[in-house]
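Data availability (excerpt). The following record was deposited with the supplementary files.
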Amino acid sequence: MIILLVALLRNGEFISLAKTWTKEELVQLKRREAFFCPACKREVVLKLGSRRIPHFAHKKDTACPYEYESESTRHLTGKLDLFSWLQRQNIRAKLEPYLPSIQQRPDILVAHNHLLYAMEYQCSTISEQLFQKRNDSYRIKGIRPIWILGAHHLRYRTIYHLALP
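Predicted structure:
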């Protein structure tokens, strides 16, 4: 299942779950709005369960043709933390923007000092081929990729020495 933190409203406006919402606000929003995937434009559902953070997901038995992998709670939380930190630094950033010309949705797109950066918070293993494809696609569009490896991938040998498993 593909999990989204942003969606489109019926009127074409974006809605982001990065904003601080109360449970009641989200319940009311779910009752009165329809939500759509920014990439494929298919309807998505606002999920408000207790096992994961609030998120949007494609309806059962529908899949987004522009997605590669599902995202763990660790990934979603890390991405939100990073996005919030960028905002507190007054750095212009967009959460999960879909880039139709390369059919990619970076975790965060950052505009800083007249440059664009695609930040990917990577918690799962991906193939070298997919890693290269994403990097090449970003670079062709003049976007600099930045990959952040989730800390659970690191082994601490000493306080100053980290290693990859």
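Summary of structural features: The chain has two domains: 3-58, 73-155.
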